[in-house]
Predict the structure of Tripartite tricarboxylate transporter substrate binding protein.
Amino acid sequence: MQRRNLLQRTIALAGASAVTPWVHAQSAYPHQPIRWVVPYPAGGGTDVLARTVAEAMRPSLGQQIVVDNRPGASTNIGAQIVATAKPDGYTVLSADNAVLAYNEYLFTKLPFHPEKDFTYVGGLTRFPLVLVVNPNFKEGLTFKDFLAYVRAHPGQVNYASPGNGSPHHLAMEMFKFRTKTFLTHIPYRGAAPAVQDVMGGQVPCMFLDLAAGLSVIQSGKVKALAIGSARRAPLLPDVPTLAEAGVKDTEVYAFQGLLAPAGLPADITARLNAELNKALAAPDVVKRMQDFGMESLAGTPEQFHAMARAEAKRWGPIIKATGVKLD
């Protein structure tokens, strides 16, 4: 009897030792492809950045990262998909100003809460918005000329944006609020047609993000009057900041970061954050971001969370004061 019990225990221990490595191998993160939701159409700046960083993260993670474009409802469709996904590290989101700072004020009711329904993984990038005009709007135009003209013609000067609630739209609303001017908003479906009409003179001006607008600014197809960053951009050293031009407290830029569903385990959050920061430091990613005037937001989840909530608090009063709503 004792010999039989000893044999059974030996077999059981042998079985456990054989199974344990398999269990650990199956539970190691990640063991399947990761879905990266982008709440904008394919081909835009957010999509291109996500694909660039995802490809840089892939070798270390050892899994494919599949970009899934889910545009619509001012990013709410893509954000809701991630907010309601399983918090297992296999669904992440490119989140920008809209998800993190604007929509809670632009919509009466959101299908998610930007703080309660997400785990903040880390920052991606930040890039300033630039006030641009058609070069023929006025001969020898300077920022001072532009401001004097719109003040003398309230409501008669139109401005373009890629759409209602976009960073470009709200940048001009903040500009109007700070300068006590009135320009008429002409929303477009995307940045490309908006810029096209500013270049063509159908609409005289807009705020354009540096990442998308650098080439048309450098080519002279539009004229940059002022930039919304705290310091002048190295790629546009002759363009003054809005503060230098006399408009204080008007820093306007687009920013992006990586989110996951709320409740993501701490070890998976740490792994994703480490791989994200590593990718942002990769030479090809660094060069691509520099070429587009993008600033890396590499850092901890806590740093990105603090920055995003500070932006929400900064924009809330402006959005409420201007009365902009999307529902």
About this structure: The chain has two domains: 33-126+254-322, 128-227. The radius of gyration is 24 Å.
